[in-house]
């Protein structure tokens, strides 16, 4: 298993989205002085249709990475690119799902899902058909007329997923969308997300604190250090799809890979994640 440092100078030619040598600093409370370095020489890339989880401790800059890729923030140093072109602002090809559903409380579930396409001027017939399709896909076919306050937390996140996917983004940026859900609902949402992703093959960058969630969802797991954030490990997840959590935990490699990730997270600093004899002697295969 190869350890990748965050100072690579160029993204692979096939990358859909990439950060290359990116650093980002935020001003201190007074607005003066050097401020706080949040990201330090971060490089990463995602190929088309890839599902990658970004894993790291609180405050390491995971959400900042998403904000840079979404176009909400600008890097102080380095390149942030989509298909080799600089990202200078938000775009319809990139969807965002936040930690909270952020639905409009005065709109029905169906109108929340349809809001983006309606603003984009979609024809009425297409808008209604796609709204019905997405609501059915996320298991909310019977709840289109309900308001967000009438739904459970998991149902609100289903609606948020439908709203993000209805515009058919090529890239989906997800900032711990299941973090506030109970364990059973979170697993149901993870299974729903993977089912939709396997149909749509959207490129996904998913931020999480949860190692099990990352191993269940991802093709690759990128591990960040403590602040200032750097990419300390880039690990393939070798398990075949479709996955069930019950089958996943029975995989011999699952425990070894989880142990490696936990050690990397705990040690955090550049170059500090140790190699175990068992993981070195039996390297995990690259994902197909």
Percent in strands: 15-25%
Secondary structure class reads: alpha/beta
Strand order of the largest sheet: 6-7-8-3-9-10
Question: What is the total domain count?
Answer: 2
| N- to C-terminal distance | 15 Å
Strand count, sense and barrel status of the largest sheet are: 6 strands, mixed
Name the CATH superfamily assignment of the largest domain.
Answer: P-loop containing nucleotide triphosphate hydrolases
C-alpha Rg, in Å? 19 Å
Shape: globular
**Number of beta strands:** 10
CATH topology of the largest domain: Rossmann fold
Q: Which CATH top level class of the largest domain fits?
A: Alpha Beta
Structure description:
- The protein is an alpha/beta fold.
- It has two domains: 1-27 and 35-93 and 172-288, Rossmann fold, CATH 3.40.50; 107-168, no CATH class.
- The protein is built from nine helices and ten strands.
- The protein has helices spanning 62-70, 109-119, 124-137, 153-166, 183-200, 211-217, 245-248, 252-267, 277-281; strands at 15-26, 36-47, 51-55, 77-82, 85-86, 94-97, 171-175, 203-208, 220-224, 231-236.
- The strands form two sheets. The protein has a six-stranded mixed sheet, sandwiched between helices. A four-stranded antiparallel sheet has the order 2-1-4-5, covered by helices on one side.
- Strand 4 (77-82) and strand 5 form a beta hairpin.
- The longest helix has 18 residues, at 183-200.
- The two termini are 15 Å apart.
- The model is unreliable at 1-10 and 269-288 (pLDDT under 50).
Give the helix/strand layout.
Layout: E1 15-26, E2 36-47, E3 51-55, H1 62-70, E4 77-82, E5 85-86, E6 94-97, H2 109-119, H3 124-137, H4 153-166, E7 171-175, H5 183-200, E8 203-208, H6 211-217, E9 220-224, E10 231-236, H7 245-248, H8 252-267, H9 277-281
Helix pairs in contact: 2-3, 2-4, 3-4, 4-5
